[in-house]
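WARN retry 2 of 3 for item q-0093 after timeout on previous attempt; input resubmitted unchanged.
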Amino acid sequence: MQAIWNDVVIAESDNTVEVEGNHYFPFDSIKQEYFKKTELTTMCGWKGMANYYSVDVNGKVNKDCAWYYAEPNDAASKIKGMVAFWNGVKVK
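OK item q-0093 returned
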């Protein structure tokens, strides 16, 4: 699987986990140079608190387009240490 934004592969892995239609990529599969942590957090009733990254590719920023659960609830333990995408990031 690949995550692509602004025509650049920002994450790539054969070991994604699919939850609710989203592919979660292992942290070590994201290209760190494109990612910047943001202050945004959201809460999911069964997964827990999500934290976000913005992605900057060739000077174009996609704000809060990647999220992860640093300490997911037990029900979502399989996505600990993994990142998912939305907001225009193509996953294929």
